[in-house]
Design a protein that fits this description.
The protein is mainly alpha-helical. 75% of the residues lie in helices and 9% in strands. It folds into two domains: 93 residues; 80 residues, Autophagy protein 6/Beclin 1 (Actin-binding Protein, T-fimbrin, domain 1, Orthogonal Bundle). Strand 1 and strand 2 form a beta hairpin.
């Protein structure tokens, strides 16, 4: 009987030990569940925080994209404006170069005309057209002798040509004087020289 009670006590002790171990295991598992639940809650909170941060970053990205697009449009407009201004500048510069070249050409032409004017202003037109000089004992006009001497005969054709030149010279002067006379309201009423080369003559008015 005592032996049987002893065995029962031993079995009870073993049951208690087993029950205590099971109880400790349940407490450990319960503790693990609490830890897992806490970690899960923390992870959910972190996930929610990350989702919120992600949405915030997406909104910021959208805002930055809008600003970037706006800046690109402004830059494109500025580039277009700069290109237009550059084209206008190049056109104006080319036009300025053409005008400067034209001005230089005009200045060169004016200089040339002034040189010609100065040269022509020094020329006596009548003296150039009717060169009066002498050849020995003879007076000459344009190389034609104006008469003859007993010791030096001159062809009448040369003499007539010389006096034809004189008639033309006088007629030229007459035209100049007539212009002055018209201004002064004066009329020549006696004679008029008609220059026709070697056959020039004086016409009575």
């Amino acid at each position: 009987m005592d032996q049987h009670l002893k065995e029962l006590d031993e079995e009870c002790a073993q049951y208690r030990e087993l029950l205590d171990s099971l109880k400790e295991g349940n407490d450990a598992r319960l503790m693990d569940r609490n830890i897992v639940a806490a970690k899960l809650a923390a992870m959910k909170n972190e996930e929610a925080s990350l989702i919120g941060e992600s949405k915030k970053l997406e909104a910021e990205e959208a805002k930055l994209d809008a600003e970037l697009k706006k800046k690109k449009n402004e830059l494109y407009a500025e580039n277009e404006s700069a290109e237009l201004l550059w084209r206008v500048f190049r056109d104006n510069h080319r036009q300025l170069i053409r005008m400067e070249m034209k001005e230089q050409d005009l200045e060169a032409e004016v200089h040339c005309l002034k040189s010609q004017r100065d040269r022509l202003s020094k020329i006596n037109v009548l003296n150039t057209a009717f060169h009066i000089w002498k050849q020995g004992s003879f007076g000459t006009i344009n190389g034609f002798r104006l008469g003859q001497l007993p010791h030096s005969q001159v062809e009448w054709s040369e003499i007539n040509a010389a006096w034809g030149q004189v008639a033309l010279l006088i007629n030229t002067w007459e035209r100049i004087l007539q212009t002055l006379a018209d201004c002064l309201d004066i009329q020549f009423t006696l004679y008029r020289i008609v220059p026709v080369g070697s056959h020039s003559f004086i016409h009575c008015l």
